[in-house]
Amino acid sequence: MYVAGYGCCKQEILASVGPVYDISRFGISFVSYPEDADVLVFQGFYNGKGLRKVINVYNQMVQPKKVIALGKCALESLSYAESEKNDMLYEFKKRIKVDVYVPGCPPRPEAFIYSILRLIEKP
Amino acid sequence: MVILIKKILYVMLVLGINLYIVSFLNTKIVSRIELRRGYKGYKIGELVFPYSNSLKYLSKRFSFSIWDILIFVFLILLWSVVPITLNLVIINLDYGILIALVFYILILVFKIFSVSYTKYNFIMGDFLRKMTQMFSLIIPMLFSIISIVILSKSLDFNVIVNSQYQCWNIIYQPVGFLVFFISMLLQIKLMNLSEHNQFLYFDNVSKEGEGISKLIERLSGYLILFFLIVLTNILYLGGWQKFYSIRGEIMVGIKFYLVFIFLVLFERSISNIHGVNKLINSIYKLLLPLSILNLIITVVFCILRNVYFII
Amino acid sequence: MSKEIKDKKEEILGSFAENTEKNLNFYFGNKIDIIYNFGKDIFFELNYEDLPDVLESLKNNPDFNFDVLSSIKYRKSSNFLLIVLFSYEKSITLNIKIRNSVSYLNFDLNDAIGLLKKIFKFSPYYSNRDYIKDINNDLIVFSQIPETLDTFDLYVSLNKDLIKNAYICDEISRYNADIVFNCKEINKIISMVNNLDYKAGIYPELCFCLGIENLLQIKLPKRAVYIRMLLCELFRLACHLSYIISMSMILKNMTIFNYTLMEREKVLNVIEIITGSRIIPNFIRIGGVSKDIEESTLDLLYKLIPQLYKNLRKIEDLFSSDVVVLERLRNKGIIDNKKAKTIGLTGPNLRASGIRFDLRKSDNYLLYRDFAFTVPLGRSGDSLDRIFIRFKEMYQSLKIISAVIGTMPLGAVGKMINPENLDLIPSKVISTVECPHGIFKMFIEIRENKDIQIIPIGPTKNNMIACEMALIGFSADDLLPVVSSFGIESPEMY
What we know:
The structure holds 3 protein chains of 3 kinds. Chain B contains 12 helices and no strands. Chain B is mainly α. Chain B is globular and about 65 Å long. Helix content of chain C is 45%, strand content 17%. Chain C is globular, with a radius of gyration of 22 Å. In chain C, the strands form 4 sheets. Chain C has a 5-stranded mixed sheet with strand order 1-2-5-4-3. In chain C, helix 8 runs antiparallel to helix 9 (254-275), helix 8 (222-251) packs antiparallel against helix 15 and helix 9 runs antiparallel to helix 10 (295-320).
């Protein structure tokens, strides 16, 4: 699993690694190389350059690959924001298909873990 | 011929069982230390955990290089020389300790080559740094091994063990044992044994698995750990000597797991070693002088005992 | 007796501000029109042509002696340029808004910085420096890899193994706050503004509400102030704990990592019971707070404090007894007090280099004067000091929390104020709080039709400059621990 971006949601992802919400009991681990990742987590604040980086990461991942969009900021930019043709966001929406949307600002660690389990059950 | 095949089978069986127990214990102890309660939940599942881990690596992309095969071959060669107990050894050599150390160093060299296949440059740089640290750790270890060899006047494992029938070497050579243990601990720390829950892999070589090469990397890590523990046992803790009325084979098992648990506990309590210059400096300041001092004292002791018959 | 001394101190400090106001009027009376004085912050407007002369005399004249450039804020869309000067001896901030006498021309930031360059040494750091990317790229650390370094990329040029030059490229965190914070509804602003500091979200809220209350001259009930203080200290705890988590992650000590996460989880749990959310509180309202704290939660927190203290001690012991940690951090990334003063550092990073400066002591913005606590200081300003100063601050905030619980007064928690019917006149306010990273300021401008614009002035840029300065001359092995020891994480810069 590869986590992109920064922000409040990353705090909750960090909490899910810890001893209280132990995410590694489901066999999930975080990597920093996109080649090893199966799932991309899209969360936090982005501008054009950040979005271009995420597209780069997505292109480097190996099939089969899934995308989780986490938190209010990501959802807002993906579903409500207007995008023009020469915009980076338009490019992003065209290239990347999101599988699971997780609402919340920020979503609790349980919600994050639940979204991953949904991905495992119904690929 | 039949005896040889039998011996090979026995050695493989013993190593396999120990591999299972050690990887199981490792996850258990580490999870307990790191306060992760997740492993408590799986009552039946935890018994299968070591197998599922290896299956996870195999289910990924199929990739291996020639160096992985070489590592595997040399691991087999290493374990054909090292005796676990008196009879549980495939080839009995008069200079076994020398050959074992040569194989061990060769395995480390092949590990460098196997990692140099990655496209990320900094992994290679990091691994080279780790390896230089490892080799700088091996030097004081070799010095303390030499003093043992001088004490028992042989390169044969059997002779070394038999020379401890009265008293274990740890009593003659506490400083040497300390140096040996510290360098062993740091080597295991560098090899990064307990490897789950790593949110970031930045200054580590390890990545999420890639087929057989990853499996062999993990296997080689564990087998090197076994080699180091068995070496401690033979050199300092009396090997398969009888302890009062307890049989030697049982004593080997007890000592093996005691050393292992101590190692894991110490390994978790120190943070990762990084920065080649710093570590080499501290080794040259502390471990190397201590081991050389130990060597000189043993040489003087042996000369006094064997040449002048004073002691 | 002690109260008298305190009053005298305040008189002296107050007279500093008045004196500077008088002096400003005396020296540049014809050049500047209006001077606002908000206690420690003085605000005035200035023409662009007069900028170099005024700044030079402000720096060199012994009557002013404002020798630190604290921040430069620039918005291209609204043609806005704000220069913030600071003096450590008087602890007074000067906020200078530059007016454009030729209205059809936009400011050029590089032009203004070209003027400032001769007077203040560190002014080029505030301009767009992306051209450095092409020069030093011997070693590039991209963002997203470790947890702490997720808001910027690092471009480093090396001389063999030693760092010659470092550049923190924050292009991915240039988050356009202009769009979000031009808004009419105050409730919406309060719910959005806590994104500015995602590790301690209560501080931007508090800063905004304090500013509006200062403008309307609202006096708060005592219980509301106490609850605000309690939450501030809880968030300070959570923020410092997450700093230690990221530090242990860089040092790869998973034992400390997990123990600290456990403690952080306890603190977040209490915050959740009080505010309803773990990380983004949206709790403070104008004229008080949104909810009252129940007695049972206070009891729970009171029982938690000795437990937290014990566990934090344990974690500190784990840190300080580890030889590897000490070897890697001691005497690395040193910022001595002279350098820290010229850069304009604030917060724990400043205190680590041995300068006693805390807004909670000197400014008294909430009722911090009711409680006894000390301001911990470091000795040499290296990376190790920056860790242990945070531990000491956490013990102090635990002390404050227990004192707050012990003397919690009864009464209302807020005034009944409908934020939509406030009679806001076009004006400007600056409010200041001491957040866990440093001093957090907010420039609030109310225009016609109750249109509110917010410009945050945070400590992150100063921390970045200090980080770039500290890296020079050390080996590439020390790169990550030194960078993460500054605790740079905030999108409040632009």
